[in-house]
Amino acid sequence: MSGGERERACTAALVPESMAAAVEGYEWARDIVGESGGVVYRLHGKSDAPDLFLKHGTDAVADEVTDEMVRMRWLAAYLPVPRVTHFVRTHDQAWLLMTAMHGRTAYQLLRSDEQARFAIVDALVAFLRRLHAIPVSECPFNSDHLFRLSRARTRIDAGLIEIDDFDDERQGWTAEQVWTAMQGLLPMALDPVVTHGDFSLDNLLIHDGEVVGVIDLGRVGIADRYQDLAILWNCLDEFDPSLQDRLWQQYGIADPDRSKLQFHLMLDELF
């Protein structure tokens, strides 16, 4: 989350007193991409101090920030994730302060280095296989499609769906049309693994050819493996369809389940 097109400089935000010393002396920048009702700041420029990220949310978003904190601490035993430095929760607000991770996003690298695109996809798939290999029995979080459908229905009824952000093939659809189309793809055979929930190119950090970190962990939990595969597959379409083929080859799926792909992409439209 760096670069002028993704953030803008801002004044320091008001934080709880217990967090004030930890953020003192930093320059602040506010993320302007994908805040989803919350606020994300990058704290940087402090001599001999690491960059930090601060997430803040109120009401329902405070619950999401709390969910991310709990999942981040759990996933740290298995994969490289940001380290929680401070967390404060009140009845209606949450602040999550965490270390920044080095590396560039997979999106940045795919845009800037066409010759390395297959190698980048290989690194992403290797990391995804590590995630999916975590024993389901060790994961305390549920993120399956039934749980997410329930949350999606609540969001639809509350008028929270941003239909202008739908993928091209669903431009002009209503949220109810997406909901109805999803029902036509159920039931489906389940293949549960530990998933990230939003395995997109902006959430994966790469350095020296390897994924060195994963961020935005609020949806981590047990779900069908296509929850992650569908989002990554869809992201790669922006660059070259051959990268999508590479995904299946490296992951080891000879015949992708198109029904599951469509279901999880439509489900993602509602979040």
TrEMBL record:
Stored SUPFAM superfamilies: Protein kinase-like (PK-like)
Catalytic activity of the protein: kanamycin A + ATP = kanamycin 3'-phosphate + ADP + H(+)
Ranges for domain Aminoglycoside phosphotransferase: 40-260
Keyword annotations: Antibiotic resistance, ATP-binding, Kinase, Nucleotide-binding, Transferase
E.C. number(s) listed in UniProt: 2.7.1.95
UniProt cross-references to InterPro entries, sorted A to Z: AGP_Transferase, Aminoglycoside_PTrfase, Kan/Strep_kinase, Kinase-like_dom_sf
Family: Belongs to the aminoglycoside phosphotransferase family.
Protein name: Aminoglycoside 3'-phosphotransferase
